[in-house]
Amino acid sequence: MSRVFNFSAGPAALPEPVLREAAGEMLDWHGAGCGVMEMSHRGAEFTSIIETAEADLRELLRVPSGYRVLFLQGGATQQFAQIPMNLLGGGSADYVITGAWSRKAVGEARRMADALGGAVRVAASTEIDGFRRFVRTDELDLDPRAAYLHVCTNETIHGVECFDSAPFARATDVPLVADMSSHILSRPIEVSDFGLIYAGAQKNIGPSGLVIVIVREDLLDRAWAGTPSVMRYRVIADNASMLNTPPTFAIYIAGLVFKWLKAQGGLEAIEAVNRAKADLLYGFIDSSEFYVNPVERSARSRMNVPFILRDETLDKAFLEGARDAGLLQLKGHKSVGGMRASIYNAMPLEGVRALVDYMGEFARRNG
Amino acid sequence: MSRVFNFSAGPAALPEPVLREAAGEMLDWHGAGCGVMEMSHRGAEFTSIIETAEADLRELLRVPSGYRVLFLQGGATQQFAQIPMNLLGGGSADYVITGAWSRKAVGEARRMADALGGAVRVAASTEIDGFRRFVRTDELDLDPRAAYLHVCTNETIHGVECFDSAPFARATDVPLVADMSSHILSRPIEVSDFGLIYAGAQKNIGPSGLVIVIVREDLLDRAWAGTPSVMRYRVIADNASMLNTPPTFAIYIAGLVFKWLKAQGGLEAIEAVNRAKADLLYGFIDSSEFYVNPVERSARSRMNVPFILRDETLDKAFLEGARDAGLLQLKGHKSVGGMRASIYNAMPLEGVRALVDYMGEFARRNG
């Protein structure tokens, strides 16, 4: 099969030029005589790769000084435990629940708080509304002495996104901690609104097995004494993400993705494309009698677009027809059913056009 | 530069056919329409990749039933903490120190025991002998009630290897836990001698960012309550290494390496090559007045061969000449100095011949 339009929620499609470059350099990176997978992480070649990757990420996100960028392992799910280990300090943390992922985060944090000593509070939840909107600041029941306030700014399963972090940063003096796994690098953000940002790589950054943490320096020294060395933010920061061997190939691919993003014109440019893609798809869904997206308009994710067919008996035929049309991975998450189109940075507008064309044709044939 | 002979201790050289296959499939794996990095880990394609990798690894190592194979992240260094979290159970563990890596393991275990409650004992150490031999069972000061006995069966920095695990398994009734990072898959082993085997991938398995744990089922349920979900052996076993997104590309490469090993004839065949490589190199060193390897003959690692030049003022010239001859990464670890040739499975006999030829010529020119 030639390359398809791959709507996977993650691991997700990567930019084709990145894959071509990685394939071309697989046996010999820049005349080193070996590929990136085979290089000592302490050598000059890999040092230049990780340093360039960090510099490019800082430039793209305009990371202010006073923040450290860490390349870690274990995925966002490991961060669900690692964050309380590093930041709870025997106190209490506030969590906002806006979908399946923030609900998982609070569950793991509770387990950790029970074991480490400390507490976890739910500051707000939109579960009663079926996770169809983001939370409003006037709903927050905040603990002014909380160790931090945790939010998930894009819910991959429920397709709910927070587009403005400023009101949340203004609502509290405690550090805002954000899981941005599924929309980081999709548009500019204000890093200084946050104490800590984390993101699994396998959507907009690169391969799975890499997670990026951007953390304000004053939060580096609060770790519980039993935090494993590889999980202590201070230790990783002091060792430039190389206390032990980092996931070198994943960092290299992430670096190529950052270069590709810069070549696209950076985050303002990619935001314009992402906005056009989302507008096209949501616009089509709203104009249709056949498809429905349940999320409040102001909170609709530009990255993950869940939708249902009004007649769910057609789901199987829809997915089979999509596959035949070269449109893959459209099945919704098993917890919510229906369909989901994940349209991350690497998905071109052309792919969303092809999806909308197919959806229109399928509706006409079956309407 | 064309491909060199890469003696890196890790990340280390990979078999060229593996790299060629990965490069060729980077944009489209077996007609899937996307590369392995871009696949959902829950789909049929990746499920077949991880299941085949596990089956091939089990076949190569003859893993008995009653053992689970886990694909994890964080490297062996994360296991240094994860093992006490999962196995200490408020008790005491015994550690054998035979080099830099087992010393690191005991340091991390002590930190964990202090925080979790529990203790760590040193059952034996060869540090006073400069880590030039493996430990003998008659030196072991064993706690019969220990939660486990930890050994590192190949010390990457000091070049010391344990070739027979049976006496250690017979010496105690407690589970034997072994760090095999730098010699796993270099020859057949008796898995049933061990309660748990772990190995970072970046030597004989695949890319960094993947660690493999082989654990006996009766050890799955001893975890401390605060162990993060992604670090609980039981949880990972029950979720077939996919509680969250695993490092999919690293697992895929590992699977290709396992296939390559099977095509070489399995572990008996690769052991014969590894023995020939080690015999050639150690034989040359011993016959020379110019180079020295300090390790007792019976414990000399077949994977990591540290050696010094009797005249260390020639070190720089040796390394420069080696580089010009296409022999890279020969500098010894900074903690011990001198040189080190890591000759893992992917290093052909031809590479060791080229090294010995160069060493002979350098000695003649400078002797």
Quick synopsis:
The structure is a homodimer of 367-residue chains. With 367 residues, chain A is α/β, with parallel strands linked by helices.
Jot down its keywords.
2 domains, Aspartate Aminotransferase, domain 1, Aspartate Aminotransferase, domain 2, alpha/beta, 37% helix, homodimer, 367 residues
Structural account:
The structure is a homodimer of 367-residue chains. The model of chain A has no long low-confidence stretch (mean pLDDT 97). Chain A has ten helices and 14 strands. Chain A has two domains: 17-263, Aspartate Aminotransferase, domain 2; 266-366, Aspartate Aminotransferase, domain 1, CATH 3.90.1150.10. The two termini of chain A are 30 Å apart. Chain A has 367 residues and is α/β, with parallel strands linked by helices. In chain A, helix 1 (16-24) packs across helix 7 and helix 2 (44-61) crosses helix 7. The longest helix of chain A is centred in the last third of the chain and has 22 residues, at 266-287. In chain A, strands 2-10-9-8-5-3-4 form a seven-stranded mixed beta sheet. Chain A has a three-stranded antiparallel beta sheet with strand order 11-12-14, with helices on one face. Chains A and B meet through helix 1, helix 3, helix 4 and helix 7 of A and helix 1, helix 3, helix 4 and helix 7 of B.
